[in-house]
Design brief:
69% of the residues lie in helices and 0% in strands. It starts with 13 loop residues before the first helix and ends in a 6-residue tail after the last helix. It is mainly alpha-helical. The chain is built from 12 helices and no strands. The relative contact order is 0.12.
């Protein structure tokens, strides 16, 4: 999900030009270290999210092939390594290019991507418990997920407030700029709601489990209601202003994120509700998972068809590769886990087949995005040196 930013040194100010005409002045400041890091925005966390969901969704599919879990373990390890590298390089970005980092926060096209940090932490943390425990052991997996879940939730809640605040008081935007990217900081709490249930069985019985369960439902509601406020603006912009620019067309798939993730959340929460709350609430929450999940999945499929048609149109019009292609991975992966959850709670084979079909699409999108990203890095096109 790349955003082209104007570098400050590409357009010198009037005072800079006047100083140049006046002759030599004070020595120019030394160039910043690690210049490639200047272009490393928060959108790069989408690579981690998209890779982690391949492992998480593959390990929880209703159908398992020989060697499938081993492949998911490898992909999870890759996502964990990518997260570690990105955390280190993004820290370098803030250390050596603080002006650009602040500019990102004040740029309405880039600031929403700060929600991706939270989702990357949460996705890798969930994968640690789902498949990583086979490699590092359950106690270490629980501890790692607890740390990543806590950090990811804290960052997600912060960005769910900070980014909208900046959009209101600092960013200069209008309704014509409304796009699916605006949803990113608001989806982060929904990812917490979907991954938090993995920790419930590992907590002491009683109020601790119930507190986490209800906190996840609170984050589910927070994210859902905020999404319902923004989604009409996104659809209205498409109807009144036409298709998105070609390179931004893949971001239409971001709308699937809150839809698939909320379906995943209610099913995951229903799985652990009997461990945290008694009757009649546990049974009611199980029923809610189906009553909510089925209609939302129907709308998700409608949006998937619309987004796919617009993506094909953009491809035929000459859409090239951009980091926006990673928007084709994580959101589709949440629909996979949502359909798998409905298959568990309804027993319908149709949902199991839907999850499998969506997972094949997820794999194809991940291979395309990862392959082009690696080639772009090797050629120096994505992070100019």
């Amino acid at each position: 999900m790349a955003t082209t930013l104007v570098r400050p040194d590409e357009h010198p100010s009037r005072s800079d030009r006047a100083a140049h005409k006046a002759g030599p002045g004070p020595a120019a400041p030394a160039p910043a270290r690690f210049p490639a890091l200047r272009h490393l925005g928060p959108n790069w966390y989408a690579c981690v999210m998209g890779t982690a969901i391949v492992a998480n969704a593959g390990a929880t599919l209703p159908y398992q092939l020989p060697g499938q879990r081993t492949a998911c373990q490898i992909v999870w390890a890759l996502s964990a390594a990518a997260l570690a590298v990105l955390l280190a390089t993004r820290a370098g970005h803030w250390l050596h290019h603080r002006d650009q980092a602040r500019a990102h926060l004040l740029d309405p096209a880039v600031a929403p991507f700060y929600g991706c940090l939270s989702m990357a932490l949460l996705a890798v943390g969930a994968g640690t418990l789902i498949v990583g425990r086979d490699l590092i052991g359950e106690p270490a997996a629980v501890a790692a997920d607890a740390v990543l879940f806590t950090a990811g939730t804290a960052v997600g809640l912060l960005m769910a407030v900070l980014v909208p605040y900046l959009m209101v008081v600092r960013h200069e935007i209008d309704a014509a700029q409304a796009g699916p990217v605006w949803l990113l900081p608001l989806v982060s709490p929904m990812v917490s709601a979907a991954t938090g249930p993995l920790l419930v069985p590992h907590l002491p019985a009683g109020q601790t489990r119930e507190a986490l369960l209800l906190a996840c439902y609170a984050m589910f509601g927070l994210s859902l209601l905020a999404t319902l406020l923004l989604l009409p603006m996104v659809f209205g912009r498409l109807l009144t202003a036409g298709p998105l620019p070609l390179l931004l067309t893949p971001t239409l798939f971001l709308v699937l994120g809150p839809l698939g993730q909320s379906t995943t959340a209610v099913n995951q929460l229903a799985d652990v509700a009997p461990l945290a709350v008694g009757a009649p609430y546990a049974g009611a929450l199980g029923a809610f998972a189906v009553v909510y999940g089925v209609p939302v999945t129907g709308f998700a499929l409608l949006w998937l068809a619309l987004a796919t048609a617009l993506l094909v149109r953009a491809a035929r019009a000459g859409m090239g590769f951009a980091m926006t292609w990673w928007a084709l991975t994580f959101p589709v992966g949440t629909c996979v886990t949502g359909a798998a959850g409905l298959a568990r709670h309804t027993g319908l084979t149709a949902f199991a087949w839907l999850a499998a079909a969506l997972y094949v699409a997820l794999l194809a999108a991940w291979l395309l995005a990862a392959g082009h990203t690696l080639r772009g890095l090797a050629a120096g096109r994505l992070l100019p040196r």
